[in-house]
Amino acid sequence: MKLLNLSLLFFFIIFFTRSESCKSNDKTTLLKIKKSLNNPRILDSWDPLTDCCTYWIGVVCNHGRITGLTIAAGEVVGEIAEEIGDLRDLVILDWSSLYGLRGTIPRSITKLKNLVYMRFRITELSGPIPEYISELQNVTFLDLSFNRFNGSIPGSISQMPKLEAIQLNHNKLTGSIPESFGSFLGKVPDLFLGNNHLSGKIPKTLSKSDFNTLSLSGNNFSGDASMFFGHNRTTVRLDLSRNNFHFDLSKVKLAKSLVSLDLSHNRVFGELPLELTKLRLDHFNISFNRLCGTIPQGGLLQNFEVYEFSNNLCLCGAPLQRC
Ligand SMILES: *[C@@H]1O[C@H](CO)[C@@H](O)[C@H](O)[C@H]1NC(C)=O
Ligand SMILES: *[C@@H]1O[C@H](CO)[C@@H](O)[C@H](O)[C@H]1NC(C)=O
Ligand SMILES: *[C@@H]1O[C@H](CO)[C@@H](O)[C@H](O)[C@H]1NC(C)=O
Ligand SMILES: *[C@@H]1O[C@H](CO)[C@@H](O)[C@H](O)[C@H]1NC(C)=O
Ligand SMILES: *[C@@H]1O[C@H](CO)[C@@H](O)[C@H](O)[C@H]1NC(C)=O
Predict the structure, then answer these.
(1) Could you say which ligand is closest to the alpha carbon of residue 140?
(2) Is the CB of 199 under 6 A from ligand 3?
(3) I need a labelling partner for 226 at 20 to 30 A (CA). Which of 97, 150, 202, 251 fits?
(4) How do the domains of the chain map onto residue ranges?
(5) Whole-prediction pTM value?
(6) In which family does this protein belong, per the annotation (predicted)?
């Protein structure tokens, strides 16, 4: 009798641990997602006969609810299944290095109200970045880098109140930065827009956004970029390299917080501000511009090489030639 009770107890322990297991409608949804990717080898562990919370690679559950879905590094053929929106408890959606993932981000994604982390990186997703992703009001980290998205950057992204980082770099985006990026609903997120086909002038409104990290490298922006500078900013990393920016560097005030500044390959003119000697720089590059005058001496500035100062109009002084 006692033994029976004990085995009953064990049965219940196992039963309740098992209650963490996959719900059948979630399993059905996941299998639709798998099918929509043409049942790729990386999802071989998604076996209809096993528990999806326990045995399926990339599926994370919390009390039987699917909270994480990571699919990475493999060949797939197909699109993101519409049914992804049925995984209502998803917090982390992280798909990366999926060659053959085509199409767009389906509208059903807006049903994922608990989503905090959204990443589709290194895939072949294309077309415009949909405006409706801004309906994901809990997202703090948005990474759509290394895809084939084209069209302009949706201004509605500025209305996502919890954003901390936006990575749209390495796509085929065109147009400029939306004016709305001068007034984010929440705090100003780190912004990575490098290696797109963005062009034109930066809207003046952007002077209102104090970015911690901003990268616009490898686009075709032109005109003034001095709105990203200023005495009382808290910018730490600023990369404006490989564009067509044209402004007077003598006229900008540098934030004391700057640690990394890359202006290389632009048409920046004027002289180097003396304040550069007061910064704790770990990266600095002003090569291939139209700067002139004496390089301020002191601080960490002379730690950088000739290559970081070269190909300007008439810069002189260490580490370049004497004036
Ligand atoms: C964000 O997530 C929390 C809890 O995960 C949820 O209660 C809330 O409704 C979500 N916010 C929005 C705007 O959907
Ligand atoms: C985006 O690319 C598609 C196909 O590659 C093309 O048909 C479409 O016109 C492009 N859109 C924009 C705005 O460039
Ligand atoms: C970059 O923009 C300039 C105008 O500011 C234009 O003349 C040039 O053709 C553009 N370059 C590319 C590669 O799109
Ligand atoms: C920053 O400085 C400018 C003037 O240089 C001033 O108008 C502005 O209010 C300052 N902003 C903050 C947040 O201190
Ligand atoms: C600075 O830019 C030049 C030109 O693109 C490049 O050759 C050099 O390696 C860069 N230096 C650093 C530290 O990135």
Answers:
(1) 1
(2) yes
(3) 150
(4) 2-316
(5) 0.92
(6) Belongs to the polygalacturonase-inhibiting protein family.
